[in-house]
Design brief:
By secondary structure, the chain is mainly beta. The chain is built from one helix and seven strands, in the order H-E-E-E-E-E-E-E.
Length: 146
């Protein structure tokens, strides 16, 4: 069951998706350095509530495994990372500069309690997958109706 805060987060995300404040003018190549975001976009995620595990899949393209940090407690998971682009000295001026670098962090409230000590994480092709085993009391049980 979702907390009232989780429900508000979902509603807010539906009404105001990420990036809704960024006007179309950001697409103008004339904005140069002003068009560059000040920080990295947090990864997009899927959270799946399975029978025995909560599975989180996060898009982290271009992020090296050594630059990722994942922490889990019984009610939340946090994914932190950084992307540092090599600074190159180039002659001329940028017409468009969109490839960002920097740090990101995303904390997700979990749908139920998990055992963080048994969690696992795998990174392949820019997709981070966390497998978070549920604690026994959080697992779904079918109840026979008399």
């Amino acid at each position: 069951m979702l907390s009232p805060f989780d429900e508000m987060d979902r509603l807010f995300e539906r009404v105001f998706p990420r990036g809704w404040l960024r006007p179309l003018a950001w697409e103008s190549p004339l904005l140069g350095e002003f068009a560059e975001p000040s920080e990295m976009r947090p990864p997009r995620v899927d959270v799946f509530d399975g029978e025995e595990n909560v599975i989180i899949r996060a898009e982290v393209p271009g992020v090296d495994k050594k630059d990722l940090e994942v922490s889990v407690n019984d009610t939340a998971a946090t994914i932190k990372g950084k992307v540092m682009r090599e600074a190159k000295e180039e002659k001329g001026e940028y017409y468009r500069c969109e490839i960002g670098s920097g740090e990101f962090s995303r904390t997700l409230t979990l749908p139920c309690a998990v055992d963080g000590s048994k969690a696992s994480a795998h990174l392949k092709d820019g997709m981070l997958e966390l497998t978070l085993p549920k604690v026994e009391k959080s697992r779904r049980h079918t109840i026979k109706i008399d």
